[in-house]
Amino acid sequence: MAELANIKKDDDSMPIFPINRGYIKRKKFYNGIAVFFAVMAFIIGAFPVFHIIYKAVALGHKYLNWRFISTLPTGFPIGAQGGILNAIIGDVYLIVIASIFAIPLGIGSGLYLSLFGKKRTNTFLRLLNELMIGIPSVVWGIVGFYVFSTNAGLGFHFGFSALAGGLTLGFIMTPIIALLTEQAVNQIPAGYIEGALAMGATKWQATKSVIMKAALGGIFTGILLGIMNIIGQTAPLLFTNYYNTGLPTGITGPGGAVGDLAMLIFIYIHEPSRILHIKAEAASVVLLFFIFAVDLGLRLINYLTRKFL
Amino acid sequence: MAEQNEIKVEVKNLNFYYGNYHLLKNINLYFKRNSVCTLLGPSGCGKSTFLRTLNRMNDYTEGAKLTGEVLIDGKNIYDKSVDVVELRRNIGMVFQSPNPFPKSIFDNIAFGLKIHGIKNREFIVERVEKCLKYAGLYDEVKDKLHKSAFSLSGGQQQRLCIARAIATNPSILLMDEPTAYLDPASASIILDLITTFKKYYTIIIVSHNIQQAGRISDYSGFFLDGELIEFDEAGNFFTRPKDKRTENFITSRY
Ligand SMILES: Nc1ncnc2c1ncn2[C@@H]1O[C@H](COP(=O)(O)OP(=O)(O)OP(=O)(O)O)[C@@H](O)[C@H]1O
Ligand SMILES: [Mg+2]
User: Fold this and answer.
1) Range of the structural domain that residue A116 is part of
2) Statement to judge: residues B82 and B11 lie in one domain
3) CB of B52 closer than 6 angstroms to any ligand 1 atom
4) Using a 6 Å cutoff on CB, does residue B17 contact ligand 1?
5) What is residue A119's predicted lDDT score, i.e. its pLDDT?
6) Could you identify the atom of ligand 1 that is nearest to the CA of residue B45?
7) pTM of the model
8) A212: distance to nearest CA of chain B, Å?
């Protein structure tokens, strides 16, 4: 109030402008149009998803039972009887192996890019990372074959196995986690990092106790996206794991291969058998639920770590 | 000039650049042990930047360059042999805007102790409590020590940051407008604290508030466009400034 009183009289003449009712009305109309298009876009995007789920459930509903997910495939052609337990167990193997490889590597790379590296090299590494995200998965499959699976020449000679397949899927996951980690760290207010450094924390101490915590949400999104991305992959597995109708006896060499839901669907659809086609539909519903469960599980872990860390 | 052993921090021919922008120009001054020195100057004149050269917080700033010397206890902190982490453990810093960590109130203060390798739970609890009392925050937060620091108001957050800065027993305290976010009553608490604190610390404060500065300072410096225009004992500085520009500033003509 005191300041207002100090303003000189001739400064006091704040010109009053007329309210343009037509303008406001027009803007409200545009707002309505924007909302309409947003809703339309959602419906257009969501419709196919619901349609597919509907079709899959309609076709495969008779197999959507506990027996289907708890027994191994049998009969002739294999799968004509029994369930898809091999693929569910196999997916767990693949995700765990890929995650053990990709989560530390991806988070580490992301932290390096955002906190530790030199500016010039980082620009190059970042480009490389984005390029890796863009590489088609079938190419990763071939890379994985030469690095992990083939029994000739250089490489690890893991054979067609869960380890070879999982690590190859890890290749796909890593750059996604790295990108999301870097972005999450870059969004942390500079004050957190400066505050920690000013207290005499080393960069690693600051990272461990302040930065990681603040970036956790973004890092989890990266892990989630990474896992979602690999669950549906078949191409990388074609050359590194292929498919096992039974349970694995190890994770490398003969007997090391595992089943996989996406591969199961891919294979069943190519069989000239009505039963297998229907089972493929049922399996895709299971795959959807599987993804849903992984998503929920990760979100729960995210929530709990935020709350109790 | 003060006697050598009375001087805690001495700045010699300090120049600072952001890229090609020559911000701090040939700064020379000293800070006496267990004294309070306020740095004044209009917005953008380089006060914060100067403060940050004293604990090397500009090390990570892209394009920052520095020449000259900052001697703490007679040792140049820009010397190759100086360990920055070690250096900063000895210097507490309170930033211009409150920046508590995304942790609980308790953990914000315990953080400094933990990174110094202190694990004794009892010691930490006692220390946290003491620091909060020092910063005049204890009564307000004693029932919610394990709530997030973000649940505090801006002024409370700033006091938490002060508590955090003193938790590790630094010998120097750098404060960048510590009362900017505080209401007059809390500001007053902090100012009283600062006067008490000088028993333990050498305190260097950036301030915009000339009255507050006058109240707590032993020494004062006036910055203008990256130059140190005047530096003197507070008595002289506020009542008989030598430079016309200082006089204009402290009589609020900038
Ligand atoms: N990282 C940076 N890169 C380039 N220029 C910067 C950077 N940080 C600050 N500056 C510039 O340096 C000048 C001094 O900034 P500084 O923050 O030291 O001012 P200040 O005296 O603390 O001002 P205030 O009282 O508003 O806090 C400003 O002109 C600012 O634009
Ligand atoms: Mg400032």
Assistant:
1) 66-308
2) yes
3) no
4) no
5) 83
6) 21
7) 0.84
8) 10
